[in-house]
Input
Amino acid sequence: MGLSVSWDKDQGAYIPLRHHYLGAPKQISVEQVLNALKPVLENDKIQKVGHNLKFDFSILFRAGIHMKNLFFDTMVAFYCLDPSRSGHDLKDLASEYLGRQLTPIEELIPQKSSRLNRSLPMDQVQIEKVSLYASAEADCTRQLIEKLDPLLKEKRCDSLFYQIEMPLIEILADMELNGIKVDTVFLKKLDDRFSLEIHALESEAYGLAGQEFNLNSSKQLAFILFEKLKLPPARKTKTGFSTDEEVLESLIALHELPRILLKHRELSKLKSTFIDGLLAEVDPGTSRVHTSFNQSGTATGRLSSTNPNLQNIPIRTEQGRMIRRAFIPEKGFVLLSADYSQIDLRVLAHLSGDPVLTEGFNRGADIHRATAAEIYHVRLDQVTDEQRKRAKAINFGIVYGQQAFGLSQSLGISMNDAQNMIESYFHKYAGVREWIEKTKQEAKLKGFVRTLLGRVRYVPEINSKNGSMRSFAERTAINTPVQGTSADIIKAAMIKIYKHLDTQSGRPQVKMLLQVHDDLLLEVPEQHLEKTATSVREDMENAIRLSVPLIADLKTGANWADMEPFKG
DNA sequence: CACTAGTGCAA
DNA sequence: TATTGCACTAGTG
Output
């Protein structure tokens, strides 16, 4: 993601900002490029020399602009045409369309692409190469415009592309540039604490095993557990016996070692991935981490996040929450999180039109409790915690196409009980079952499914003779419209929110930091909290009109773990 | 160094 | 035999 500056030395400069490429394909003057760049560059290190623009590319990097992803916007266009193709495929596709090979920017610059934003300054040779690349990119993009626009219209993906994905590019670029502040001192202390405990657990494990071994090796661990200690193996993987969490849990009653291993697994995961991994990505100058959002990386329309992935920061266990606690606002700011309440189920209610589910949301019910009441035939106030828990598991499972076996596993109940629960569910929510059947049929007929805003996902395997492939395709055919529509909705919300942020000298004072699928994280000046929260809520709840209300839960706090509901 | 497998974190 | 992701470590060639 990012902004890119492009020009052509013969025809003059055109297309200064990526998100203008396809939206407004036209040539513009060098002066217009200069003007467009001013708010970004804040200085005059860019000159017009003859018909060329001349500037030191390192100032772009100093301004925090990442040069990545060739043909970014055309990739997004290809993505709208078929999101199941990976980014690499999209590059090849672009080459096909233009009938020649494209050179990835990574080959022009000797640093690793993921470290591009730290490679400053570039030398003169590199600048020349990047300049050449930028010209070529702009030219190829212009040629692709004519080919892609009619395809988008033909598939009725043009409004998704022009109204949602293109406006989103600038927002994601902004979020990447903002980054999020990390309390590195806190994180390092945590690192020391975890290291000590991990070491102690290792010693303990060696004692119980009667020898030293690599606790991180599932192969060595399987040998210790199932051959040396003769514990009963529960499951096999392709290469040997499984030692995953579920298996270890089942062995706790038989031996002391598994409990130690589980504790060790949790801590070493937290240390290696989330503490060490995160610290390695922090900008030492600002203490902020800048993730990359991939806008064309998922089959459903969701975003993904890399280097580091900030969409999977722990929250469930207390020690995991310690990691989240390290994410803090800048001095004078607070964090504001705004997450959609049960958006997938609301989307399911809307798509299926099921009257019971719809009614539940319309009267503002606790939907898991309501589901429990429906399937257990009890009054709302008679629902037990256990019943609510199971209803919640069903509600989630339905969206993924879960069947009796899976439900029985996740709840630890018999296949029979699970089957009965599912039957009761579909009995009460008959509209959901009908929608599932209708959606599968349509997918078999057309070979694809769509989200509410028209995003397409092809599911060719749905007519496969291979039963497990077909079942998998059926589950994606059900899951994609739900997950994908939720993604459409939050993208629409981000665009509304961003548009309403007050700006000062071109940049919003309120900073959008992260999107985690149904959750937005913003950094807000303390004195603007009230009005920002109000407008964020407004924009999220009115992002798209469904047959059920959309509800956003707002929370604020001085770190990402300890947040209090926003009153108002 | 590139790749796979196993594992586990999130929505 | 529940979807969508990314990344870590071990192990292989």
